[in-house]
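S.,

Sequence below, as promised.
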Amino acid sequence: MRFDIVTIFPEYLAPLELSLVGKARSGGLVDIRVHDLRDSATDRHRSVDDTPYGGGPGMVMMPEPWGVALDGIRATAQVDPWLVIPTPSGYRFDQRAATTLATCEHVVFACGRYEGIDARIAEHYATRADWAGVLEWSIGDYVLAGGEAATLVMVEAITRLIPGVLGNAQSAADDSFSKAQGPPLEGPVFTKPPVWRDLAVPDVLLTGDHGRIDTWRTEQARDRTGQRRPDLA
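The prediction came back faster than expected:
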């Protein structure tokens, strides 16, 4: 799978060299390419933003550099890519969205800054026959300084669902929000030692009775879902 990420802060994406995503990259399971939007600017100052039409605070990212950058990426693509634009005004990104994109071959992320990217970028690439479509997604009900942090979240969420990335494929199936049935949140987990600072591992987990353990875990997951995410219960 190929990811292209366009940003004015390429260094922000350095964590993609680490941990699970880094291993997936070195193992050839994902191809991640980071592009500096300013390389596509058309003036000597490498400008990528201007004042908003209609007035208002802040600056808006101009469409021309984005068009140059995205067209350049498309020229090197083997399949029609999806364009993902992280934005607090987007649809909610969730595990279902991550699962869907994990089956795609090529995804391009456009990391906006300031007041966002000129809306004509989303409109234009949504109608292009050589692009799979445009997805404007939000990772939560809050505002970040730019799309880079949201892109890191989405790339990791998608990558861990690609076959071969996780050492045990069952890990993804048992994750919160991934279970085919039962409570959507995962319950508490424990490891050695059996007692730590006077806190003991629940006795049922030490019995070896997998039927009882499964029942206990389901009950704990149901309780946690009801307490923390009653909207999902």
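The chain has two domains: 2-159, 179-228.

Coffee later?
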